[in-house]
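Attaching the record inline, Q. Sequence:
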Amino acid sequence: MRSVLSVRMISAALSVALLFSSAGTLNVRAMSVISTFTTKSDYDAARDTNMSVAASRINGYVLEPGQEFSFSTTILPRRTVNGYVYAETVLKNGRIAGGWGDGICQVSTTLYDALLIAGIPPLERHPHSSPVSYVPEGFDAAISTPGRKDFRFVNTLSHPIVIGASVDKGAVTVNIAKP
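Structure, as predicted:
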């Protein structure tokens, strides 16, 4: 599996945030983008479905100062009723893994790295049991069954933040913005 890691800081002077609707349409709102992060992996339709469902659940999410965010709670349980499908992925070591909602860790990882750039540390973050292809070791954020592994953080900034998230053929982009 070939992947590319890309990190971009956007100047605080930029006054628009790119937020994507669940239909993939772009909404532009006046705000200052604090950070953006993109991860890329090989395209797989089932993984993209799961990543798109998870991204749609965090896209546009507003956190006030001091407010806590739980990734697992926000994206809902990985079940067909919530839009998730069975998907497989090839791990960095060549092993194949899969399950319902597979691919959502790429979204939690992308959010984690965007938050690190914004200066917001995690409250809870777990590495994958095997290296992933879309970020270097130590920059991933694995989640699993609610109550076991979650990715959680608190908005430690003095102003609200808005999460923008999108998925496009194996690429996940997350923006952190100030409204």
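Helices lie at 45-58, 71-75, 104-118. Confidence is low (pLDDT under 50) at residues 1-18.

More tomorrow.
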